[in-house]
# Entry
Amino acid sequence: MLVDNLGWGDLGCYGGSAPTPRLDALANEGIRFKNYNVEAQCTPTHSACLTGRMPIRSGTVSVPLPGQGHYGLSPWEFTLAELLSDAGYATALYGKWHLGDVEGRLPTDQGFDEWYGIKNTTDEAGYTSYPMFHETGYPAPQIWEGVKGSPSQPVEEYNLESRALIEEQITKRTVEFIQRNAASEQPFFTYVGFTHIHPPFHHHPDFKGKSGGG
# Structure
């Protein structure tokens, strides 16, 4: 699980002031690492996690900007998902990808059997709310899904309304994938790229106003 924009010191088990009891339980029941080294942006972070290589080696050193052209992992990069897929694992990615937004550079081209989520930055959820957006002719951002061997398809527009609900969908699909493969006793790997705490901030209605922090 990779959480965008989460600071090392934000979690309770590392001294954070906001309660994070479930994450603290994971830390207490497993292994808690105390030396934290991270890339400063989304794309190089995802790249390093999936390839085990410094982003400068794979050309993913910064977040791409709209209109910059094709970006992301080259098709010949060998990912953790490809390694495990070759070993017989079922593989899936749910959530944020941010390592290429064209066919040939999507999760199902880099070792994942299936995926659901967003190709690029969470910032895109706010694009259609900008007054001048529709005059640009730029297509409305989408939430996508796909399976290996077939082109990915748009599921729904990624806007401020779906932004508030996408974390629930990511979690639901991840749990279903785990249960499905646990029942079949097939080894599996799922990579979960959560979109919170990245702006724009839009809370799920079940949790709005519940934190005590406004």
